[in-house]
Amino acid sequence: MASTSKTSTLSLSSYLKRMCFIVLGWFFVILAILGVFLPLLPTTPFLLLAAFFFSRSSKRFHDWLINHPWFGDYIKNFQEGRGLTLKSKIVSVLMIWLSIGSTALLVVSSIWLKLLLLVIAVGVSSYLISRPTYIENS
Question: Secondary structure of the chain in the HEC alphabet?
Fold first, then answer.
């Protein structure tokens, strides 16, 4: 009887984790879509995060995302190790610094929060820059 309880707890835990990852995946898809229209939101990092969460929670949503006509190529190139296009890198890093920089300068008053934002911007920028650069065939 104890093993049944443990099994149901594990499956409930797995189910909750999966649902949380699906919600996070859709949250980042929405942010990525907003990023297409709002200049201060970077699209590419949000797409990569959405793909990460979907890959661990829903094959259907992951397949939809990587086969999407607008977003799919960015994610496939990244996941297959080809990296990001130079344009994606430049726009992503620029938007990260514009959004985080403006938030740190204009919105946040706490020095610790400003430093945290700076560390996040440096970390994400370094990661994106360090990825391989994919050269598209014209």
Answer: CHHHHHHHHHHHHHHHHHHHHHHHHHHHHHHHHHHHHCCCCCHHHHHHHHHHHHHCCCHHHHHHHHCCCCCHHHHHHHHCCCCEEHHHHHHHHHHHHHHHHHHHHHHCCCHHHHHHHHHHHHHHHHHHHHCCEECCCC
Q: How far apart are CA 4 and CA 120, in angstroms?
A: 43
* Whole-model pTM over 0.70: no
Tokens of 65: 């995302």
Q: Per residue in 30-53, pLDDT tens? A: 998 888 787 667 787 888 899 999
Query: Distance between terminal CA atoms of the chain?
Result: 63
- How far apart, in Å, are the Cα atoms of 135 and each of 77, 121, 138? 10, 25, 9
Contact by Cβ (8 Å): 132, 82: yes
Q: What residue segments make up the domains of the chain, in order of their start?
A: 2-134
Q: Which CA distances in Å does 15 have to 18, 22, 53, 54, 99?
A: 5, 11, 14, 14, 34
What span, in angstroms and rounded, lies between the C-alpha atoms of 50 and 16?
Answer: 17
